[in-house]
Fold these 2 entries.
Entry 1:
Amino acid sequence: MAELLIALNPDEDSRLPYLLRVPLPAGDLVFRTSGTWPRVKALYCYPVGLHEWPTDAEIVERLPLRSCQRRGAAIDVIAQRARENRSQLVFTTARGRDAVFWQAPRTRKQARPNVRTPSARAHGIAELQILVDAHERYPYRFGTQQVSTVRRALPCGDYGVLADGELVASVERKSLADLVGSLTGGKLRYQVADLAALPRAAVVVEDRYSQLFKLDRVRPAVVADGLAELQIRWPNVAIVFCETRPLAEEWTYRFLAAAHDWASTETAALQRMSSPRIDIAPVIDTAATPEPSTAEVRSWARAAGLDVPDRGRLRPDIWQAWRDANTSG
């Protein structure tokens, strides 16, 4: 009877601690992988040559197989046991590169939840205009919503909306890896502080909160405590976990639409706003002073005795100070 073999990876420096050997009629395949079975999430598999399977392999698990067949771009694996017996190795592409993922029916359902996002207009807005930060590399397209997008350099966040020319709400998008990296590196604290200066703001995470406790390169408690501290320090910036990228995109659209409706209908709230202005109208007067670059504003701020970082985005108050000093009137 054919067996699926899982052994310890002898390369201690590898980020994938296990070797997976898959028996096929045309010849066995060997992969480096991060787990012994895709129980809670799909496992990334890195294909290697058969020669990497050690002659004295330290076997972790042997799974007798009822079936192991390659069908198109996938290998269907059925183990000889009652539970957790079906899985699939899928050959696909991720960000333009070939990739292999080992998934089970349960993890596939979690990765692609059986939900359909609504198509109804948020707050009855016929077409919401959303600003997309010019530095956002893979932005949301809002293809299924009634949205038009405009690329602009935002003072904070990745997506925002205006009311009467003022930025009234912004959303910072994070993958789980980006969230953990920016939190442990200290960057997220400054991003949330910038967002807190706006009337409405949020951080949306394209994953489940439970995934924080499956991290293996950083202590999960450190990340959980850090997020809790951010919420206590800046309670007006929500941190929302939305499971998948499409659901995070839908949530961002609904949040920004609600913020736009709030800013447009509550006069008292508009009077309290003091956030930076972003002019989205096309420039008609060719004699008007163009918006300066970040480097120019940084140089001006230093000459004016203001404290600015050596690199990265400038705080909203620095931009406002430049506008106040350079606006004729």
Entry 2:
Amino acid sequence: MGRFIALVILLIPIFTAGLGIKLMRDAFFHIVQPPFSSVSFQFLMGIILFFVGFAFIGGFIFHRDRKNGKIGPRFSKKEG
């Protein structure tokens, strides 16, 4: 059950990043989606959504690998 909840929590930033990619693509082809008033604002929101989702997934993987000792010494936590 715990792994299922973790999967559901990880799906939220994945869909957020996917929505960001879709908004950037639509802005590139000058298709304005209803909540946005201009193509440039839509593209900016797409970039923000993409990077937020990407950073969350990257941070999760980094934290998990640090906890399991699978990263280099340069990125491990300093003692003291």
